[in-house]
Amino acid sequence: xxxxxxxxxxxxxxxxxxxxxxxxxxxxxxxxxxxxxxxxxxxxxxxxxxxxxxxxxxxxxxxxxxxxxxxxxxxxxxxxxxxxxxxxxxxxxxxxxxxxxxxxxxxxxxxxxxxxxxxxxxxxxxxxxxxxxxxxxxxxxxxxxxxxxxxxxxxxxxxxx
Length: 161
Description:
Layout: H1 3-13, H2 17-20, H3 25-52, E1 58-59, E2 64-65, H4 67-91, H5 99-127, H6 132-155
Antiparallel strand pairs: 1-2
Helix pairs in contact: 1-4, 3-4, 5-6
């Protein structure tokens, strides 16, 4: 049994009756994979920012990078790869598209999420005058919806449940 098959079995174990009545299996798998990847992102970011970079500016000689941006730049490729792998092999494993096509489309989708996150945060904080934390919560909920639709109908288009 492959690692993907083992992980799918674990995820599906939690797909119990009350959940089954409300959420399709593919959506459930997507939510679990996305949640795990988001949790990984938060943990890696916190460890890198607080302990490895020690909240200090990163000086590369020709440029200085703030510690929160440096942490993002290190963590992003890691969670990009893990997110793609989880979605490809667990949530959308029956997509008829070739792997490299899926990867390129996933990159476009994720970059769209990053841009949308930036624009929505600016909008909610500067135009609507919400505090940053609730703005991020609202923004995250909107981006989760955007991301799911992009994965289902663009990145892994044609995927059967």
